[in-house]
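Hey, resending since the last one bounced:
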Amino acid sequence: MPRVLIYGDSNTFGTGAMRSLADDPIMTHEERWAGVMTADLGPGWDVVIEGLPGRTTVHDDPIEGAYRNGLRTLRAILESHRPIDLLIICLGTNDLKQRFGLGTRDVALGVARLVDEASRLEIVGKTLVICPPPVLERGDLAGIFVGAEALSAGLADEMQRFAAESGAEFLDAGAHISVDPLDGVHWSVESHATLGRVVAGKVRGQFE
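The structure tokens again:
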């Protein structure tokens, strides 16, 4: 039975579009893209979902906490679920927050660092990098993601390049879905459903 581990942020966790910073809408497991993917794959697959709201690639968040740093926790999570036949990394959105001051290439390199780190452990068979769809500066999150709309427009190309150089497969989520315009960061239930089915097809292809 192939084991798939998904390493992501709030969109993997299932946070819905937020009307304000105080809002905390959480989708059901069945609504989240990872849940849709699991259902679409059917029996015979072991899927582990590790989604943490606010998770970055390799950066300590000075406001939301150092534990959001995806590099800090990656090894512990991978070791906890080894062996892993396929690691799916869906990160990058939070790196676009103004507080980090990163360029598009640096965000892509952060994802590549995670791929390389996982490869060094020799407990992961294959890796799939999913680039999140471009951010929109909307609603209450706009002040946190100042400049992210322009930066994220070129993220897929950079992420695809460095994923390939690190030996990972790549999927551009933005070719299939878009963010919910309510907050410009999170995805609608419909987008989750679409992406879940697309990723399920991609996952099957990894094992044919």
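The domain at 3-206 is CATH 3.40.50.1110 (Rossmann fold).

Sorry for the duplicate.
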